[in-house]
Amino acid sequence: MSLLEAVVLGIVQGLTEFLPVSSTAHLRIVPALLGWNDPGAAFTAVTQIGTLLAVFVYFRRDIAELSAAFARSLITLKPFGTQESRMAWWILFGTLPIGIFGLLFKDFIETDFRSLTVIAVSLIALAVLLSIAERAGKRRRTLAEMKLIDTQAIGLAQALALIPGASRSGTTITAGLFLNLKREDAARFSFLLSIPAITLSGLYQLYQLRSQLAGEFGIALLVAVVVSGIVGYLSIGFLLRYLRSHSTWLFIGYRIALGIVILILLSIDFVQPY
């Protein structure tokens, strides 16, 4: 992988990780359109470490409060004693579904699920669900009003993001809207919920790639991580500001258009499914 590819893929990862358009899909689509090799599921997972760092920086105060509350709940044996401790535990519980399904379907995630056909269909399917959520959601609840069952529903939705094209933020924001959360609150919880999953996935794949880190690939990977972190930080701010006064229809339209374009390109053999 050249440094140019690393920079481009880092930008793509940073731009699309937090927008409900699927970073995994774009890290598969962009190389296919440019004639590059598929960087692979492992590369995708490791570059997410950069966007994870962006979440830590952007939400540093929230994370510090949640971490402190979680530690106090362990000491006092009162896991749900405060709103912050409840949220910390709910994020932990909400991570279980993606962890379980990720282990069960690991081989499919790294092979069959990366088909451009699967990606195109999931781009369109999630767009349809998100459009229904936009119409059905009341958008009046805040994070403070969330209950354990809400976090589990969003956690299950996050597990759907294991299918490239579904989008981690897309599935969780969609679930949040169905649960009548305000758009910005749904996005904020989506970002916080992503922390454990991205951390575990990224570190695991980094360990798997440890033998390649000493060479040029390791340098390219580091560049992609750094670039994705910088761009990801800007993307978080943009999305939260955007959702305060706008709907997700822009992303819905983009997902449908991209999915249709990919299906057309596949039908004329301009790109190959694998």
Account of the protein in words:
This protein is an all-alpha fold and about 270 residues long. It has twelve helices and no strands. It has one domain. Helix 4 (about 60-75) crosses helix 5 and helix 7 packs parallel to helix 9. The model has no long low-confidence stretch (mean pLDDT about 90).
Summarize, please:
With 274 residues, this protein is mainly alpha-helical. The protein contains 12 helices and no strands.
List keywords for this structure.
274 residues, mainly alpha, 12 helices, 0% strand
N-to-C span: 18 Å
Helix-strand sequence: HHHHHHHHHHHH
**Overall average residue pLDDT:** 91
Biggest beta sheet summary: none
What is the secondary structure topology, with strand pairs?
Elements: H1 3-16, H2 23-34, H3 40-58, H4 60-76, H5 83-104, H6 106-110, H7 116-136, H8 148-159, H9 168-178, H10 183-208, H11 216-245, H12 249-267
Helix pairs in contact: 1-2, 1-11, 3-10, 3-11, 4-5, 5-8, 5-10, 7-9, 7-12, 8-9, 9-10, 10-11
